[in-house]
Amino acid sequence: LSLEEVTTLFHEFGHALNMLQLQTTYNGTGEDIKVDFVELPSQFMENFAVEPAILKTYARHYKTGEVMPDELMAKITNSGHFNQGFATVEYMAASYLDLAWHSLAEVGADLDTESFEKGVMKKIGLIKQIVSRYQSTNFRHAFSGDFYAAGYYSYIWSAVLDADAFKVFKDAGLFDPKVSKSFLDNILSKGGSEDPMTLYKRFRGSEPRIEPLLERRGLLNEE
Question: 196 and which of 37, 81, 169, 209 could share a cystine (Cβ 3.0–4.6 Å)?
Answer without folding.
Answer: 37
